[in-house]
Predict the structure.
Amino acid sequence: MKKSKVPSLEKIESALLQKALGYDHDEVVEEYVVDEEGEVKLTKKKVTKKHFQPDIPAAKILLEEFNKNVNIYENMSEAQLEKEKNKLIKLLKKEGKNGN
């Protein structure tokens, strides 16, 4: 069975968070030569640590999404909040049993 090339929502959220907060990445440059016997050999390897600054539009998207999720609970009654809490507890227990 062929895997889908569409990244999961979790991977997208992780990438967005990384971009919003900034991150370090190692850039590797390698040089190879072919020796007398025809074998390819590594002659130089340079690793440079690059820092990518936080991205303001990504941070804005995260803040908007966070505020949207927080605001859904603001207008709920006590009974609605209790119902939502119980639903989430059941979901967490189910996920725990599935090993996720």
